[in-house]
Amino acid sequence: MSEALNNTLHISIPMVAVVFAMALSMLIIPVVWRFAAKLGLIDKPDPRKVHTKPIPRVGGWGIAIGAIIPILTLIDFSPFITSYIIGAMILFCFGALDDTHDVGHFTKFAGQFLAAGVVVFYGDQWVQFPPFVGLEGWTATLGKPFTFIAIVGMVNASNHADGLDGLAGGVSLLSFLIMAYLAYVADGMVTAVIAAASVGGILGFLRYNTHPADIFMGDTGSTFLGFTLAVLVIHLTQVDHASLSPALPLLLLGLPTIDILAVLFLRIKGGMNWFKASRNHIHHRILDLGFEHYEAVIIIYSIQALLVISAIFLRYQSDLLIIGVYVVTAATILSLLTYAERTGWKTSTAEQPATPIGLTIRYFRTHTINITELALKVIGILLPLYIVIGALAVESVSSDFGVIAVILFAVMVLDFMLSKSRGLFLSSGVYIAVIFIGYLTTFSNDFSSLLKLDLAFSAFLALLIALIVRYSVEKKFQTSPMDYLIVFGVLAMAVFGGRYLQVKDIGIMVVKTMIMIYGCEVLYSHAVKRVTLLNLSAIAAMAIMGYRGLV
Hints:
The chain has 23 helices and 2 strands. It is an all-alpha fold.
């Protein structure tokens, strides 16, 4: 068996965890949503909060349950797994209690102490090799209390980071992605699967949490994420990959730890209650400088991405260098915020002229209607054509693809005939057809000889989509912080998939597929009629793949 195939099979378990968890999360959240009011899972506005209307706090149910079920299914039990699951369920119960009744800080800490205690003292997960100590390490007398406090601290850091739509989920997702990669290259399948399942749970939640959010994760979700991050980073650096620098958790956990330490400092300095919520978190301070909600989220995403990516390149460096990078980053962020606040700096407002870039974008939006309309028409022809050609031209279609394609063809045709509008099954079938074509064209020998031409088509399609998104006057299709995470994930898969995982084709497939999915989104956002070339091409492609797979 080839090395590439071995790697592909090896990475399939975490990939299954991602998809499984995401599907569960997206199914669980709407169910709990229906009972949110009866259960008291409603987050009401107050002067400290950003939202102005009651929002259901049900996202944590999808994140936690969506992640835990795949973990129970895909990983064999051990004292570590048992302790993690017990700790996660303890925090889930205490978090749900807080989301419904707003319990006090002592009750919250009781749950956090219980969860951390189970992992440290039953699961025997503790920091034996901290920075600067060397190979002799710490004794359990020192290491276990330190780990206990660190886990509780990270749970609270994640909880406090949940202040803007998509913020805590997106920041945690970036950390989990890098942890999954580092665990994968070290054959730490347990860590990789837990991180991947957490990614899936978050993705299912972010479907409903992108600004303006329909739901919040609540303490149920934020404490689960903080606990999982803390436990995984300990297991990764102390068990899976002991050659990693013990200072690496600073970069992997990233901005939430900077935020919680800065907030604690400001509260102590101002003589405030340590545990009373306030508006001195980093995201609040960025908003107060005049940035819009999604801009503040993307700024924080970018800082977090910088920190977690640096963990890959600095993973074998000295503790002093890693701590130095972290301290310099934290000092730069906090110094810039403090300077802006003291000088009264604000972003451009209605009273202030827009930046040259903003004026240029405004000009193009008002003078390039024909260009965006032309780009839309070109996508409307090229993408359906590529779908049909891909189904016809690939070398072969396996029987399992054929069976699925036939079933989806029947469902799509039935939905097309019975639904008066673009039905859910029809549009879902279009996206599945795009995924099938992305996979088949990537791994087909017939298309591999045309790789450069295939990538050139994808790049051209991406350029057309960018023109529509950026310069469309109607703004029917808008980007969001969720798109930032998707682009980050796609680029990471493309870069690290080829350079480190030795499964370059997976990276290419993901990039192509995501571009085509965005193309579908653009076409659907501007579609006026139910009968479109895109729908017809997907139905035809399913018929072709079904026939070729079964004959």
